Amino acid sequence: MSIPVITIDGPSGAGKGTVSRLLAKKLGWHYLDSGSIYRSLAIGVLNKALDVTDVDSIVTEAMEMRLVFECGEALRVCLAGQDITQQLALEQVGNTASKIAVLPEVRQVLLQKQQDFRVLPGLVADGRDMGTVVFPDAQYKVYLTASALKRAERRYKQLKEKGIDANLSRLTKDIEERDRRDSERAAAPLSIPVDALFIDSSDITIHAVLDKILSIISIETV
Ligand code: C5P
Questions:
Q1: Considering only CA atoms, which of 85, 95, 129 is closest in space to residue 110?
Q2: What is the model's pLDDT at position 74?
Q3: If 97 and its partner were Cys, which of 42, 108, 132, 219 is the partner (CB 3.0–4.6 Å)?
Q4: Rg, Å, the chain Cα set
Q5: pTM
Q6: 142 vs 175: CA distance, rounded Å
Q7: What is the pLDDT of residue 192?
Q8: Which of 9, 31, 34 to mutate to test the pocket of ligand 1 (most atoms within 8 A of CB)?
Q9: Residue to mutate (ligand 1; options 98, 155, 175, 181; most atoms within 8 A of CB)
Q10: What is the pLDDT of residue 62?
Q11: Any idea what DSSP says for residue 135?
């Protein structure tokens, strides 16, 4: 039997990260935050001041990227020996990630890096194309979304809690722009996997979302 995977796809700010972490903890499985891989590459691109259309340089950066994920109490990410956990949350990093994520050559390099996370006893993978491209044979697929305003409000709260300055109308605009870019790109666009459980988290709690997901997972897996 193949190593079990639960994929959770959806737009940014829908609550995928929180739900995925809780689910992975409950099942005792590994967790892949695929967005942080794109974000880490974006940090490399920003640090070297590469142009977001310079495919060759970004592909080289992606191939040479030395990323280390430490999953203790909180996830920490190191790039080339530097702790970049704080930087990952910056809006500029997310926006640059979504610009380089349109490049098929870049996605191809990152594909194997993501598939390498599929190890026993199982994996919860969150992103945009987990159920459609990276793990099309996943046993369970979820598509988690929420209205753009609700997502911007959550993001605003998260950033404020981290002491990062934010503006709600700017965040809503950025989220809508990012949704458009992620959904309209030719390479692995954000889309609902045909066999996915669709959940709108606009008006329900994270725990209600978790319960809905757990209800589709068979007892043998849990
Ligand atoms: O999920 P997160 O906001 O961290 O992702 C940052 C950006 O990385 C997204 O806007 C998207 O463009 C890109 N991404 C992607 N495919 C994934 C995960 C993230 O294209 N599986």
A1: 129
A2: 66
A3: 42
A4: 17
A5: 0.90
A6: 21
A7: 94
A8: 34
A9: 98
A10: 96
A11: S
Task: Profile the chain (222 residues) by mean pLDDT over runs of 10 residues.
Answer: 93 92 94 94 96 97 87 74 89 92 96 95 96 96 96 90 89 91 90 94 94 82 53
Q: What is the pLDDT of residue 60?
A: 97
Beta bridge partners of 32: 125
Q: Is the CB of 150 under 6 A from ligand 1?
A: no
Q: Which two tokens stand for residue 206?
A: 């994270």
Structure tokens at 117: 């996370």
Cα distance between residue 10 and residue 193, in whole Å: 10
Residue 41 tokens, joined: 């590459």
Question: Ligand 1 pocket, 40 CB below 6 A?
Answer: no
CA of 98 to the centre of ligand 1 (A): 6
Cα distance between the two ends of the chain: 16
Residue 187 belongs to what H/E stretch? Answer: none
Q: Is 87 in the pocket of ligand 1 (CB under 6 A)?
A: no
Domains in the chain and their CATH numbers? 5-214 (3.40.50.300)
143 strand-pairing partners: 9, 198
Strand order in the sheet with 82-83: 67-71, 75-79, 82-83
| Residue 186 DSSP label | S
